[in-house]
Each structure stands twice: as structure tokens, then as C-alpha cells.
Amino acid sequence: MSIDLASNISILALLFGYLSGSIPFGLLLTKAFGLGDIREQGSGNIGATNVLRTGNRPLAAATLIADMLKGTIPVLVGTLYGPETALLAGLGAFLGHLFPVWLKFKGGKGVATYIGVLIGLYWPLALLFGAVWLITAFLFRISSLSALIATATLPLAVATTGRQSLVFVILIMSALVFIKHKDNIKRLMNGTEGKIGGK
């Protein structure tokens, strides 16, 4: 493969991933089912956790699955052109969810899409994420804390794979998850973060 062709494929993979990730399923689904603009409810986030605050659990589950798939599918397509292309497609999908062009670059916090990207890239990492999230949620009953702790374990775990490019992408995504959760972190520090099942 020539250098120019490889560069073009890399750019297309990043762009395809971004456009896939930028589809705001939470917003589209809540509007389609007559629940209004999810950005004007609860936390104002477009992700599954905020959709759940509408009381519609099936719709929240659908949002979760859709947000995961928009991370997984670009990675699987990118895999057809090699592991590095898959990484770029996954990173693009994650960035698209966080900064969707259709919503003036104001997107979700990225956890579901992060998991979806992990499923496509290296599924044992997704299982690890899920296990840590469940254990933390069982102990503390706080969704954001569970997500943050699970996210923090991933760079350490992926370092054992010896895949430097994968480590780099995971580090970027993990850092962005923490940045997007800055308000949650403030509430965790002052003890005002809501608990799972709470009002």
C-alpha cells in the first residue's frame, strides 16, 4: 500500500468514525417518542443515563445500545483495512459522540461509545470495564463514580497488551471521559452527586 493511499484511508477512517459517532441517538429517540428535547431535561446530557431520567427504561436501553454500536461498527469496518485504521475509526467515533457537529460540538460524556469502541478493538477490555463498573456501582450506587473508576483502570490494563498505539488511543479517550465528567467530579468531591435510583 502506498503512503498516499494509506494516508487517505486513515483520514477516511477518522471521518467515517466521527460521522458515525456524532449521531445523537438519545436526542433523536426521545424526540421520536414524544419526550421532547432531552437537552432540556435532567442533566441536559444526550446519553442513556439522562434518557433514563425521563422514566422510559426501554428508550434508555435503546440509547445505550445505539451509542455503543456507533463506536463498535466503525472499528469493525476499519479492521478490514488493518489495526491502525480500526484505532483511528474508533477514536473518530468517540470524538464524534463528544463533539457532534450537528449539535454545535456539545455532545455526551462518552462512556457508552467508549465501551463500544473497546468491544470492537479488544473485547476483553470491554468486559473488564463492565466488571469494574458493576462492582463499583454495587458498592457506592453512583453511576459517574463507577464510570470514572472503570475508565481509570483501562490504561493500566491495556499497557499489559504491549500494543503502544492501543495504549495511546485508550489514554486519549480516558482523559476525555474525565474532562467531560468535570462537573460530576466536583459533585463527588462535595458529596452532592446523585445515586443510582435516586431522584
Features:
9 helices, 199 residues, mainly alpha
Task: Describe the protein's architecture and organization.
- With 199 residues, the chain is mostly helical.
- It has one domain.
- Helices cover 72% and strands 0% of the residues.
- It has nine helices and no strands.
- Helix 1 (3-21) packs antiparallel against helix 4 (57-79), helix 4 (57-79) packs antiparallel against helix 5 (83-98) and helix 5 (83-98) packs parallel to helix 8 (164-180).
- The longest helix is centred in the middle third of the chain and has 30 residues, at 111-140.
- The model has no long low-confidence stretch (mean pLDDT 93).
Secondary-structure topology with pairs:
Layout: H1 3-21, H2 25-32, H3 48-52, H4 57-79, H5 83-98, H6 111-140, H7 143-158, H8 164-180, H9 182-190
Helix pairs in contact: 1-4, 1-5, 2-4, 4-5, 4-6, 5-6, 5-8, 6-7, 7-8
